[in-house]
Amino acid sequence: MAQRAQPINGRAGVVAGTIVVASVCLAFLGIVLRAEPGAGLGPADWQAIRFTVVQATLSALISVALSVPLARALARRQMPGRQVLITLLGAPFILPVIVAVLGLLAVFGRNGWVNDTLGTLGLPGISIYGLHGVVLAHVFFNLPLATRLLLQGWQSIPAERFRLAAQLDLPPSMVFRTLEWPMLQRILPGAVALIFVICLTSFAVALTLGGGPKATTIELAIYQAFRFDFDLSRAALLSVIQLILAGGAALIALWIIPQLPLTGGMDRPVQRWDARGGGQRLLDGLVILLGSAFLLLPLASVAVSGTLGLPQVPASVWAAAGVSLWVAGLSVLVLLALALPLAGWIAIRARGSAEAIGLIGLSASPLMIGTGWFILINPVMDPVRLSLPVTAVVNALMALPFALRILVPGIREALASHGRLCLALNVNGWPAWRWLILPRCLPQIGFAAGLTGALSIGDLGVIALFADPDRTTLPLQMYRLMGAYQTEAAAGAALILLLMALGIFWICDKGARRYAEA
Amino acid sequence: MRRTLIAAGILLASQAGADTPVLTVYAGDYFTSEWGPGPIIEAEFEKFCDCDLQWSTGDLLPRLLLEGERTKADVVIGLTSDVTAKARATELFAPHGQDNSALTLPIEWTDDTFLPFNYGHTAFIYNETTMDAPPASFDALLDLPDDVKIVIQDPRTSISGLALVLWVQALYGDKSAEVWEKLSDNILTVTKDWSASYGLFTDGEADMVLSYTTSPAYHMIAEEDFTKKAAIFPEGHYFMVETVAKIADTEQSELADKFMAYVMSREFQTIIPTANWSLPSALPQSDWPEAWAQLPLPEKVLFYSETEAADLQAQAIETWRNALSQ
Predict the structure, then answer these.
(1) Do the interacting molecules here have an ipTM over 0.90?
(2) Global pTM?
């Protein structure tokens, strides 16, 4: 497809992309400069690489496969509480790892609800530990993300098409083939790649639910190399392998995304005549029920134990919550400054492969970025004084690929529907952003900002390496509680964390949507 | 009147702040939280030191290695015996200047750089209300029925996990691989750190958890819960110690020495058990706080010196990994 003239150019995007790549590469350089030649990779490392790829592939494919019916059901149904449900379904994604694992174990663990029920029925119990447990946990984390991404895809199909399909009296299966499948073809590869990369860097979940050292991931090997062996060259080598795997996956996925001519609609509300049959209703209802149960039961357990622990939460947790809010706010700002120009640049390019840049920050181990910048900052000033800003920037880099996945289709759609009008009116550059893209993409911007804020609140990330004792973040404080036998107070802190993350997400997401509608 | 007093107090405090020497102590992250020993150590030490003790937290050894000679630390507290070899190799440390013979550790300590301030032993903790027949020896642990589940920590990411691997090595030597294979049916899972393991245990997911002989003390003293017990094995338990050390080119040499002496003082040693849930390093057992004196402790203690541990570590971890990867 020939490249068409666009009202925005990619210069700011190139600058933003350069900043992202540079911040990761500089950190890497910092480590390599300090590294002494090490022993290289052993058989254990290769086993870790194999396991990582297997579990990440399975987790990504299953998460995305399950998200298709769930997103379709949610897209086709209007019911009371739908918005609340969609927000709540996003919660597993932003939970701190250890909290989510304890929540999952309350449902699927040895003494969990599932095994209790099976036991009462006289059936043999199930064990969550093993590769299937790792995949289960990763699906729990990422099904919500995949569902949200697909839901956006569904919302991007203009209402007129469903009307036309209804006029042609197409059955649901034909509607799926003609309208929904082409949309899925554009969204699925990117979603699979994104979740693959997220699962690639997983480590505490994989180890705990994997049941032992066969579930070792590359990230664990990186952690071991940095913190235990202090073998910087091995850490750097493993980081590069992780980057290559992530980058390779991203490039393949983005390459196979077909280019479809986008045509805008007239912004009518979507009505789904094809989904009105009783069988379709029953099917959607069942899917929503099952999906909600899988995602919300572990959350309910987190909420229950958290509520019991709340009275024991010390005052310092609230101070830490304030610090976390500050960090989250900063990372949202950094994210928007990077993601918007980058997304604009990607949106006007014929192929989406530049989106791989966004994945760099996520696939680089936060430990590597943190350590690298520590080495770089140390000769100039005390890195501890920069611990919070560095945390905020690392959080923003981690959220960047999600933000791009969310923003790029929106910007493409805005340009497809109104780009020519802009050109005709000679509205170019910043005015095109100001009058076309930003207002039309406000829901996506709100979603991306909310997701970033929520992720940032829940992230322990680099702060553990050089924490300022007087200003700790909420996740760090929660881990301290856990480390000091205060399991109940930690559960209370986890609940506060969860509520704050959901709150930030809700405010950004809902606020932008309401403003966009007004 | 009262108001002027407060004003005078503030004035004095700020003047004091202007030229009070600062002692910067690096500590592990847990150490300075309000549930750690940091706040009380700071308050007690500042009562007589004429100084301002400032904590700086983070991953101790990686941070020291990264900072090298630019480190701002005057004293480092919390280095465990498994990292002292690497810490020593940095040549950042000065002799501790204290008398090792005043130590009351169950092993002989001759190191003149790293001074122990508290210790414990690895042990498996169980809940006596849910476990009728706890194992009475390590051999008995290996013969537990398969439905008794134990949760341990990864020796590659956790100090207590590493201690367990060395414990098995010390007890069984060449037969370690068989021991791990026998134990593998009982190992529910392996976690990254102690906190996650202990969380699984308190949530009832696991029957036993790899922790310390001192863990029951926390439950007894802080929670008045007497159901958590350490299984004491006659074969012996692996010794774990935390040390404090002085940075050689500190500008606060005298203050640092004062701090090292404080660590050995009776005041510090009586605070540390309940503040850090660990056993005091230089206090005769007869002088321990009441509940602590009643804590069941192993009679035999196993320990590898840092050079022995360094030689054995990689092989012991590999044996563990191979046996549990089957």
Answers:
(1) no
(2) 0.85
